[in-house]
Design brief:
The chain has 207 residues and is mainly α. The chain has nine helices and three strands; from the N terminus they run H-H-H-H-H-H-H-E-E-E-H-H. A three-stranded antiparallel sheet has the order 1-2-3, with no helix packed on it. The protein starts with a helix and ends in an 18-residue tail after the last helix.
């Protein structure tokens, strides 16, 4: 429906005005679009019962994961409260509690074997940073040469979760192995170069 496209466009602008992440923008507008398609009626006629029916549909018929249903719930709440400026009965739209489970942890030997199977030096560096520093994939992809301080044994993470800068301290073994010949990289491509854009030949792992 043409009206739905206008509503989703306004919702996208509402999200950007609040400085939310690009991933939040994509998820909210996507799930709100699915909700509007499911209801098949003008948005200004929708209410709490429509939102509740949709979430029950996702749970019982689509059998989606708890995380996905909660994301849909958040998108619908934003759509009503901000874009449509309508009040919902939030007690009728509870969020699922996520079960707390322990992660599967690789042994030291398994971790070494996994990293050792990577033949590309740049990709190997990324694996070591993820394992030894706990960085997210997006944070590793955004790293620059100057962000890695091998002397101080710390990594500067810019614009991480919630767009917050922070420092992280990698494990000493990771810092030594992932000390990626930064001196040569600085000479050839400069401090501001992104690690993700470097070629494998530029990175010389210090074993």
């Amino acid at each position: 429906m043409e009206n739905n496209k206008k509503i989703l466009a306004r919702m996208a602008m509402d999200i950007r005005l609040r400085g939310l992440s690009e991933q939040t923008h994509k998820s909210y507008t996507r799930y709100a679009g699915f909700f509007l398609e499911f209801c098949k009626q003008p948005a200004d006629e929708l209410d709490t019962n429509d939102a509740r029916d949709y979430l029950i549909h996702l749970m019982q018929e689509r059998r989606l994961s708890i995380a996905t249903i909660n994301m849909c719930n958040a998108a619908i709440r934003f759509l009503f409260a901000v874009t449509l400026n309508k009040t919902l009965n939030y007690l009728q739209l509870p969020r699922f509690k996520k079960p707390k489970t322990l992660p599967v942890i690789l042994t030291r030997e398994e971790s070494h074997r996994l990293i050792g199977e990577c033949l590309n030096d740049k990709h190997k560096v990324f694996f070591m940073l993820a394992y030894g520093s706990g960085l997210r994939v997006s944070e590793i992809a955004a790293l620059r040469v100057k962000d890695i301080d091998s002397k101080a044994m710390r990594i500067f993470v810019r614009g991480g979760k919630c767009k917050k800068d922070r420092y992280c301290c990698p494990m000493s073994a990771c810092a030594r192995c992932a000390n990626i010949g930064l001196s040569s990289a600085r000479r050839t491509q400069g401090d501001g170069c992104s690690l993700a854009l470097m070629t494998a030949s530029t990175l010389h792992l210090v074993q």
